[in-house]
Amino acid sequence: MGHKEPMSIASALRQIQDRKLILPAIQREYVWKPSQIIRVFDSVMRGYPVGSFLSWKVLPETIGKFKFYGFMTEYSAFDNRHNPVIDIPTDREVVAILDGQQRLTSLNIGLRGTYAYKNHGGWANKAWSYPERRLHLNLVSEAPENELGLKYHFQFLTKKDVGSSSDDESKKWLSVSEIFDASDTSGLIQLLAKHKVGNDPEASAMVSKLWEAVRKTASLHFYEEDDQDIERVLDIFVRVNSGGTVLSYSDLLLSIATAQWEGDARAAVHGLVDELNQTGNGFNFSRDTILKSGLVMADVRDIGFKVQNFTTTNMAKLEADWDVMSKSLQVAVGLLSDFGLSDGSLTADSVLIPVAYYVHHRGLDHSYRESPKSRHDRESLRSWVLRSLIVRGVWGSGLDTLLRDLREVIKTEGDSAFPVVEIERAMARRGKPLTVTDALVDDILSLSYGKVRTFAVLAALFPHVDTRNQFHVDHVFPAALLDKKALRRQKREDGTTRFTPDEINELLDRRDRLPNLELLPGLENIGKSAKLPEKWLAAEYPSAHDRSAFLERNALPQSLPLSVEEYRDFYDERSMKLVARIHSLLKPQTQDPSNTDAVVLVDLDEELSEGDDSD
User: Which of 93, 133, 446, 499 has the fewest CB atoms in 10 Å of its CB?
Assistant: First the structure.
């Protein structure tokens, strides 16, 4: 590996433009945010080093054995986040970047391209929320005070932004791309004249400084590998890129799959992730979860994101079964949606993996989600999923070990039904029992309105709720009647304050806790609004029998509070009813979950990962 002659930023970008400097398929995609690009340009202006780069000289005879991508120029967070695939002529050598792609892409976007990100408060699914922006430099003042320590005022702006600031004397914007276009001294002079800063010493000095930094200073240092052994290059890439935490192992896995698959692995994975996340009310599954699911379904022995698992054999398994695995994942995510889960209520994405493996193992399709014949099995699966999301720590440390155990149980016991008893027995052996303890009960009762675990808990405690329909988490006693200002204004007959500050704080704390929450269909919840529960119930269920059944189904006292004073007694009574329901419905399916003589199996990976995860 040798050290190449340093080059200027402009020289590197010209090579990108001419497709002489490219990206190997093992590289992940561009992930930097606008603030990171701005920091790079601030460093360039100040003469700070932007780091060294590692490249690979690819000879003509090697080009045909590999996939390559071009650098991103017009990035859009809406519809252009993927690097373009390019065909490289096999009659000339090229240089592929192994380390430094994020910095080079940032320089390329800032000097030659655009960055479209979503307007604050804009619609995530509308193109107009992502206007095209170019990087600009303010020529009349330095950066406002900031926590990043930036000296120069760089900013991504739309044409409208630039136009609207034309009358602001504190701003005179230069599009940074004009620096790249000014190829020589004559171009620089014309640029100064265009912006009418030739007679402004500070502004002209700023333009000249950026032009010199981009055009003249040889600031980019490259180390180059010229060995054509792809395995060696891959090993170098992994070693260089897996030292930190920024590049995840799933990035590496996807990169290597892209390099080794005959098809386009990157497009296949990204397309599937996007499709899965649009299911139901929407999810936010990551590539990590989907690729981990693939490793589990492919029956790869070691499912960890480890370098030694990125073998050609394992990648071939993933590619061969990808279409079938994708269908299994679609059914599994559909089931989670049927269970009432979405991004806002799914507390651990990893629960998808054993569900997908069960679907895959049995070869189930979407008809399983509706068939009356599978209703009992779906209920067992639903109960287990929700209970596993309620108990803390199940999907935290030691995940790979747990997933391997669950896979083996499903493989041996799950041919005709979800083996919930055997599953929970295996979990208990791993120190992850779905056991109801006093600590768990206290934890559940303390859950509050708006927290992601709250919906899963309510859905598990009240299985009568058809979560395929839209349900809202609702306050039984209206939150509006427990407002702090309203409570302070309440007076007794003698004019004294009805509630002390401590009582008010207690009421406010209890207002949003689980004993005051229930699941209601969306339209019912909207109609209920801030009505007292007793009055709403009488109007909604005129029959005494129907009212009593509603209260029983939702573990509510037969007498609902009509005032704040009655609310405290109601809260205590509802808490007791919930405790009984927790013990009844969340009891594990194992025959003897409390067996203290059971051997708890913990491996070294799990011990080392303690404290890394929290859920």
Answer: 446
Q: How far apart are CA 393 and CA 440, in angstroms?
A: 11
Cα Rg of the chain, angstroms:
30
The 3-state DSSP class for residue 138 equals strand
Q: How far is the C-alpha of 594 from the C-alpha of 578, rounded, in Å?
A: 22
DSSP code for 491: B
Could you tell me the strand order of the sheet in which 2-3 lies? Answer: 2-3, 221-225, 52-58, 94-99, 21-24, 68-69
Q: Which amino acid is at 431?
A: G
Centroid of chain to Cα 141: 37
SS3 of residue 134 by DSSP: strand
Report the candidate in 329, 354, 352 with the shortest Cα–Cα distance to residue 407: 354
Give φ, ψ of 295 to 5 degrees.
-65, -40
Angle at 345 between CA 343 and CA 351, to 5 degrees: 80
φ, ψ of residue 53 to 5 degrees: the values are -125, 150
Quote the CA–CA distance of 251 and 238 in Å, as a whole number.
10
Q: What is the pLDDT of residues 530-586, one digit of tens each?
A: 788 888 888 888 899 998 998 998 899 988 998 888 898 999 999 999 999 888 776
Q: What average pLDDT does range 172-195 have in this prediction?
A: 93
What beta strand segments (E) does 167-247 contain? Answer: 173-175, 221-225
**Residues 502-528: what's their mean pLDDT?**
82
Token readout for 164 is 């609207």
Residue 508 reports pLDDT greater than 70: yes
Tracing tokens 């592929």 back to the chain, one arrives at 96
**Overall pTM > 0.70:** no
Number of DSSP helices (H) and strands (E) in the chain, helices first: 26, 13
Residue 273: is its pLDDT beyond 80? yes
Q: Where are the alpha helices (DSSP H) in 113-200?
A: 159-164, 177-181, 185-194
Judge whether 357 and 314 are in contact, CB under 8 Å.
no
| Of the candidates 220, 238, 222, 256, the residue with the CA atom closest to the CA atom of residue 1 | 222
Of 78, 212, 194, 171, give the one whose Cα is nearest residue 133.
78
| Paired residues of 156 in beta bridges | 135
Instruction: List b or e across 515-551, with b for residues whose CB sees 16 or more CB atoms inside 10 angstroms.
Output: bbbbbbeeeebeebeebbbeebbeeeeeeeeebeeeb
Asked if residue 426 lies in contact with residue 405, where contact means CB atoms within 8 angstroms, the answer is yes
Both tokens of 84, joined, read 């373009």
| Cβ atoms of 203 and 138 closer than 8 Å | no
Query: Contact 113/30 with Cβ under 8 angstroms?
Result: no
Enumerate the β-bridge partners of residue 488.
none
pLDDT value at position 599?
41
Share the mean pLDDT of the chain: 84
- Stretch among 251-255, 273-277, 345-349 having the lowest mean pLDDT: 251-255
In the chain, the amino acid numbered 139 is L
